[in-house]
Amino acid sequence: MPVDIEPIDIELGAHNLLLQCARIKVGERLLLVSEQGQAPFFDSQLCDDVAAVAASLGIPTSIVLAEPGDDATTFPQSVINAMEFAEITIFFSHLGDQVRFIDSPGPGRKIVAYTLSREYLGSPFATMDYRSMQKIHDHLLHNIRNAHRYHIEANNGTSLSAVVPTDSSDDPPTVIEFTLDLFPVMIFPPVNCHELNGRLVLENFLLSSSTRAYQDSVLRLTSPIVAEIENSRIVNLDRDAALIQQFREQLKRAAAITGGDPYRLNSWHTGINPNTFYRGDPYQDLERWGTVAYGSPRYTHIHGAGHDPGDVSFQLFDASIKFDDKVYWDRGRFVFLDQPEVAALMTDSSTPIPSSSAHLSIGL
CA 182, CA 28: separation in Å to the nearest integer? Predict the structure, then answer.
């Protein structure tokens, strides 16, 4: 069963963010972006905590609060103006999530922090050495790029197989790159769906992909829907007819935002941070839950409905994923971490290697 963890040290998390992830230096200007408005995802206290640590390092820091808009086209002018004068911008805001696949304003380095509260910043989720986690991420991505095929399956009956795109002129890019850094290291860039075929069993709910906000982006699924996939497209749906009709309408509404194909599956990825957790009831705010839960190895999600990256997120839990003949996730555990090649990456680090045995609760 998933287990809970206790926070460790907020200052340690802030140092990891500022010194290892942001690589901030004395003389550089730091901008922290926080949220205001109704039902913010992030605790505004985080900016004060990180600003205090930055001050102890001699780093001048500004804080700006802004309400996230519907998408990147409504990026607040106050934030744009502040970013023009910052070498480093760190988003404790849904704004950062909305621009993770596109260029954002300002000339400096940009980071989106997925520490929703002080508890996250002080926990192993954010205190695990950033450089070590980045080495693991980079090695994983290297292996994915050099694989030929992959297979995803889950106990709910999901079974999907696909070809890994090759970055050639005939294929889509292997992955859709992030345009800013993520803190902590929690997921790899999504793999483009290429010749994806099989059966996807959908349960629990649909969410948005977080790039654009739209009304009623959450669709609760009261029973499973079985989707038949051919060449990265949903071609048939089975089970409850009324729920399937709701599902189709949700896909059409989301795809209409960009004018794309409602039934297209664009890309997918799975969390790689075994210290990801979520306390409380996810159903109180599923979009907020998804903002951090997607770093968990227990959570695979597929983007679809519309042009890249798509505006619907399909959920799959505790999946087993194999690239070529090698298992990378085993029923929600990131067993890639157990490989000797991963241990070899950590020879110059005093930080313990993250363990696949961590199986923390994300509330579902």
Answer: 20
